[in-house]
Design brief:
Strand content: over 45%
Shape: rod-shaped
Largest sheet: 5 strands, antiparallel
Number of strands: 44
Structural class: mainly beta
Helix content: under 10%
CATH class of the largest domain: Mainly Beta
Length: 436
């Protein structure tokens, strides 16, 4: 009988990269591979016929004893290795207080629910082993990506945090102007405008003489409601970030509002007493200054054509007519642009006609005006100095004496009025009344 002696495989010498980290790779290695030998591996939930296998994404359950078997001609040799799998830091997180302003303080934060974790930060020209480092007086160059490495038992997790450092801005600047200018005639519409920089979508507050102008909340506004000597300014509130001062006040506009009074005129008439149909001459008396005045006349508010001098002569004046003399000034900014004086009340108060028997008292009157010598049922009209009817109706209630009536004038404005009485027979009488 012949015996065959087969050679034994060399006992394998094995290594690993233990300890491995959860999620990493486990490398199993036979360092003395022998030609013609087959290798097989077994371990916790694992087997392989590869001589140098790699287990990816290992978990804690992959820790334990791994055995390799070398087989040659039916003969075997074995070796084993103990593998450790360590956890990585649990629930890692990282953030910051970005964005921040230049020269501000940058805070970096990192955390893990595991104990014993170490931290290593790196960023633009920066490194720190603090868990939550602080960078004071951060510059624009501090912007960029900051990386933190969390380590636990040799196992690491890496997180990134983007950081923005915005440049520090100067205060807002506002300049205001006005069109057509700061020296204008009274009543002119003025448009105030603000030019702003470093303010973003600015909020505007306009002031006149230090008081807020209601409704003026935009970059421009228009008004004629100003007075001489007013000063206008604007306050701007910026909406931009990174401004140490976010409010600015504009320059101040000082307004010169020109208002020249109209010419002071008067008017007289001659003769003072005359009968209806005769000629009467009205004379306007303008001032000597300014030069270049022009003139016009009106009767009962209607311009009399063809009369542009300081005199008016007419024989067509009727009771109740109001004659006015107007002097127009050529001087700019005269408000109003003309002076006016009326002679109607003087004239009508002195008109006479036959048969006048009317008594009106007291004159001047405060409240109750008594009328005597008029027929009951007479029509009465009262005119103001412009010829406008301010009262019209039949005679009022009788007083104690027959033929005596009254009109209550307590609500009338003080001034001069013309009373016209028309009797039932058509006759008419005129009186001038002074209300006090």
């Amino acid at each position: 009988m012949n015996a065959v002696i087969k050679p034994l495989p060399t006992t394998p010498s094995i290594t690993s990269n233990s300890p491995a980290c959860v999620g990493g790779n486990l490398q199993l290695t036979v360092s003395n591979l022998q030609p013609g030998v087959a290798y097989s591996w077994v371990g916790p939930g694992f087997n392989s016929l590869i001589s140098n296998p790699v287990i990816s994404n290992v978990q804690l359950s992959n820790a334990g004893n791994y055995i390799v078997t070398a087989t040659l001609n039916g003969c075997i040799a074995k070796d084993s290795v103990q593998v450790t799998v360590n956890p990585k830091p649990a629930s890692p997180s990282a953030n910051s207080n970005s964005p921040i302003c230049e020269n501000g303080t940058l805070y970096l934060y990192a955390n893990s629910s595991s104990t014993g974790v170490t931290y290593n930060w790196s960023g633009p020209s920066y490194s720190s082993t603090s868990q939550n480092p602080i960078i004071p007086n951060a510059s624009i160059n501090s912007s960029g990506t900051y990386t933190v490495v969390l380590s636990l038992n040799g196992c690491k997790d890496t997180l990134s945090v983007p950081v923005t450092v915005n440049p520090a801005l100067g205060p807002p600047v506002v300049t205001i102007s006005v069109l057509p200018g700061d020296t204008v005639c009274a009543g002119t519409n003025l448009t105030f405008s603000a030019i702003v920089s470093n303010a973003g979508s600015a909020a505007y507050t306009w002031e006149r003489n230090g008081a807020i102008i209601s409704g003026a909340t935009t970059a421009s506004f228009t008004t004629a409601n100003v007075s001489n000597g007013d000063h206008i300014s604007c306050i701007v509130n910026s909406t931009l970030t990174c401004q140490a001062i976010d409010t600015a006040r504009s320059n101040t506009l000082h307004l010169d509002i020109i208002s020249i009074p109209p010419p002071a005129v008067s008017v007289s008439n001659y003769p003072l007493n005359y009968t209806l149909g005769t000629y009467v001459t009205f004379t306007g008396h303008p001032p000597t200054y300014p030069a270049g005045l022009t003139y016009a006349w009106t009767k009962n508010g209607v311009f009399i054509p063809g009369i542009a001098s300081t005199t008016l002569t007419s024989n067509s004046i009727s009771p109740g007519d109001v004659i006015c003399f107007i002097a127009y000034s050529p001087v700019p900014c005269t408000t109003p642009d003309s002076g006016i004086a009326c002679a109607g009340t003087l004239l009508v108060g002195n008109l006479t006609s036959a048969g006048d028997s009317l008594e009106v008292y007291p004159n001047p009157v405060n409240n109750e005006l008594s009328i005597k010598g008029a027929m009951q049922g007479s029509t009465i009209n009262i005119y103001n100095i412009l010829g406008q009817v301010v009262y019209a109706g039949l005679m009022g209630k009788p007083l104690n004496n027959p033929g005596e009536f009254s009109i209550y004038m307590g609500t009338f404005s003080n001034g001069t009025y013309i009373l016209e009485l028309i009797s039932p027979d058509g006759s008419r009488q005129i009186r001038k009344i002074l209300k006090q």
